[in-house]
Amino acid sequence: MARKPKNTFSVDHIAGGGLVDRCRLLGGGLTLGAGMAASGIAMTGPTHADAALSEWVTQAGETVRGYGVPAPEEGYVQRALIRPYGDLAPGYSFSGTPLQYLRGSITPNGLHFEVHHGGRPLLDAYDHRLMIHGLVDRPLQFDAAALERYPMVSNVHFLECAGNSGRNASENGPPQITIDQLHGLVSNAEWTGVPLNLLLDEAGVRPEGKWVIAIGDDGPGMARSIPIEKMMGDGILALYQNGERLRPEQGYPMRLLLPGYEGNMNVKWVTSLFVTGSPAHTKSESGEYSELLADGQTAQFTFGMGVKSLITHPSALMTMQGPGFYEISELAWSGAGRIARVEVSADGGQSWADAELAGPVLSRAVTRFRIPWVWDGTPTDLVSRATDETGAVQPTRTAWKAKYAPSNFLHYNAIQPWRITAQGEVENVYL
Ligand SMILES: Nc1nc2c(c(=O)[nH]1)N[C@H]1C(S)=C(S)[C@@H](COP(=O)(O)O)O[C@H]1N2
Ligand SMILES: [Mo]
């Protein structure tokens, strides 16, 4: 049988704009040759084997070290620092995960996004206590050492700030900023800790105890009311993040981790869980984190984050390296469960193809999706749209805006189109 000729442009297009079937690409003998442009660098001159020995192979290398750090060449991979009020409120500060430089689904601990309402407290972790009190039979307190003796669980979950992507809600947009600045307040980690139901059961929640008011040991008086069912259901008192103890930025020595719930409910440096019969209506929930709706009403207690996806490669302010082959790579997550599907369009939403998911697809965790694409060099819009296992579909910006008052920017989960210009520039657009 004749072998398939190499370097032919025999791509099965599965939707408009150059989207390619990934099975054909990786399993079907298709090679990335001359027609595909994403080929390796042609070798010229002497091979490495012929060349003189490099300096570093003739001497001993560096010795072992106690805690590894990234290669110095990767030093530019940093969180985007965002200080809305500058020196007027230096503690009130965020940092965005540089999604444009990451290719997996887990966020390295040093790059997990941060939101501090009053700065990262310089607390005494050895003295730190968590109190469980209020409507309980036995008020209890725990330090981190005591908690080490309890059974723990490890689960991968995303955390997303309710304000993430909110700048896309602006009528003065679309903002031309990189994806870490625009969408970086989402990260994904494996959280290990003690299930909260163990601790609440030990304290003995009384039948009238329906809510838990959680307070952190930092300045800004962040406090949230959490339904007892969530705390008892899948709430975790997290002590570890991707295997090591929590980073100070993430709430060391302990934080709440409420899978799928908006970031601010995941109280860091948590020091008090006060069991009550009704919510406290703290300023964090009545003032800061309630969405003004189109009809003038306020949506209070919108706990879960909506279904969402983002193309990270390419994304805003990147420059394409000419026409030819690319892999479009993207992230998707939902506060309601697993991601069921992500569709991608390379022609501004006229036609769609399913992206391939890079498993495991976990509940309320970030999933990476990929789809091959051959760009013909003409201007086009790349779009992705996620659906979760409950059937919820990521809305268009127009549909999202119609729900809310013009000023609202919280819980922004609309689809994100990226425009590829003829010059290969990538821009943020509203479709
Ligand atoms: N005690 C305390 N908990 C807090 C905050 C805070 O400022 N203080 N910020 C909240 C907000 S708004 C978010 S989005 C998440 C961010 O978690 P991270 O910084 O670990 O990413 O923590 C929440 N928990
Ligand atoms: Mo947040």
How is this structure best described in words?
- The protein is mostly beta strands and 431 residues long.
- Among the domains are: 130-296, Oxidoreductase, molybdopterin-binding domain (Sulfite Oxidase, Chain A, domain 2); 308-428, Immunoglobulin-like, CATH 2.60.40.
- 10% of the residues lie in helices and 29% in strands.
- The protein has helices at 22-27, 144-147, 179-183, 196-203, 228-233, 283-288, 397-403; strands at residues 13-15, 19-20, 80-82, 93-96, 114-116, 130-134, 140-142, 153-160, 186-195, 211-216, 223-227, 236-241, 244-245, 255-257, 270-276, 291-292, 298-299, 308-313, 324-333, 339-345, 353-354, 356-358, 367-375, 380-388, 418-420, 426-428.
- Strand 20 (339-345) and strand 21 form a beta hairpin.
- The model is unreliable at 1-12 (pLDDT under 50).
- The site of the ligand Nc1nc2c(c(=O)[nH]1)N[C@H]1C(S)=C(S)[C@@H](COP(=O)(O)O)O[C@H]1N2 has 20 residues, from strand 5.
CATH topology of the domain at 130-296: Sulfite Oxidase, Chain A, domain 2
Give the name of the CATH superfamily of the domain at 130-296. Oxidoreductase, molybdopterin-binding domain
Strand content: 25-35%
Into which percent range does the helicity of residues fall?
under 10%
Mean pLDDT across all residues, rounded? 92
- Low-pLDDT segments: 1-12
Ends distance: 50 Å
Q: Please describe the biggest sheet, giving its number of strands, its sense, and whether it closes into a barrel.
A: 5 strands, mixed
Shape: globular
CATH class of the domain at 130-296: Alpha Beta
Chemical compounds bound to the protein: ligand MTE, molybdenum atom
Structural class: mainly beta
Q: Determine the number of helices (DSSP H or I, runs of at least 4 residues).
A: 7
Which architecture name of the domain at 130-296 does CATH use? Alpha-Beta Complex
Oligomer: single chain
Taking all Cα atoms into account, the compactness measure Rg is: 24 Å
The count of DSSP E runs of length 2 or more, i.e. the number of strands, is 26
Task: Walk across the major sheet and give the strand order.
Answer: 7-6-15-10-11
